[in-house]
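Entry:
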Amino acid sequence: MDGYQHVSRAPTLPGGAHHPVADEFDVAALYEGPYGDARGGDAPLDEKLRQAYFWIVNHAIISPHYDIEFHDGPSAGVTLGDSKARLVLPSGQSYSSFVLIPLLTFAVRRRCLLVGGPGRGKTASAVLMGVLAGYPLTEIRRAMQHGHPQLTIADLLGTPLPADLVRAERLSDIDIAWRRWLSMRVKIIDEYNRIPTRTQSALLTLMSDGYAEVFDQVYEAADAAWYLTANDDAGGGTYQVIDALKDRIDVVVQALPFNSRFLGELVTRVEQRLKPEELVPREIVFSEAEHERMWAEILRVPLPAAVRRRLEFFTAQFELLEGAGEQFEYRTKDTARLAGVDPHLLAAAETGRDRVADLGAQTLGGVSVRALQSILAYAKALAYFRDRPEVGLDDLRAVLPFVLHDKLAADDRSPRSSSPPTVPTGPTG
């Protein structure tokens, strides 16, 4: 059990502790040194976030994967198996998306969908985020909303007081017993695709606009990191998820498989009856003030003009459809959709473009403003987590697959989709 209380110190590559200059003077800054508060306080918040990541990877979720890759030079590679699959080992410190993306969601208070089969650790990951926010484990479990076909708006948000229902002459006279989870900084919706459509609409208002409404009474909910889980993201479940609710989700991350090489860790848990969520070290728990300050520090991470220009150029490729209108402003796929015209008919009339290489020919729509804001928030959070002085192109590249996962719909009729797959080349054995 003692090993579970160990918190890694300075686990990231050495390099500078780059912290953006605050917009306003804070007297606490007079006491800060390179390793935290000179009065004996905790480590800087970005270091604390890194310590939380490594503790979860090593002791809780156990995810020894490095699918968020970074390279600091030439990378070693090897060809494996009869399929000649190429395994490239990242030369820079890399991370597991199943742990890092939910952790960044916690830092920036956005909305994360965890998908994967039962027993993959989706709910456990979300519960850990609640523990990091400082909530007791019993409170987190009671506040978790479980999707099921009978879930009503009252079950989700709150119920009117019975005495008020009897005495009230107007709706404004009815007080609502609001659910405790509405005020929490971490909100968990388990199996959200089992929630009835009408209740999904109430959840949509809460997620997008930050308030709940019952019997004309309004509750302003606290800003929070949202975690929703589902066994898949292809519309499966008891109820079809409404498009507007899916659009409010900022990132989608897949639960990665357990590596059986670490089975010994599970043996220890079973024999000693250990539950990692009950053993989270105090050193990696964030108070409400720390949570607020970390978000403010992330927002101040600079986005260089060169990186922003690359993002502008990349996202501009997806919306263009030249045949949709005469004015340049209306030459978009959305114009064709609103006019009820098949974009493929308009695209077929275009000449002089390589439709196999053209990014815009591979999708049915463009990138929304909401998705762009999510990209910026997560890119800043990743640069902050990696202790970088500004957002780099590698930070941007790393977050794009998770933000755009459900935001760009692939065009199955595009020339790229119908072209034969590329045959990998490599040494033969």
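The chain has two domains: 2-71+85-299, 305-417.
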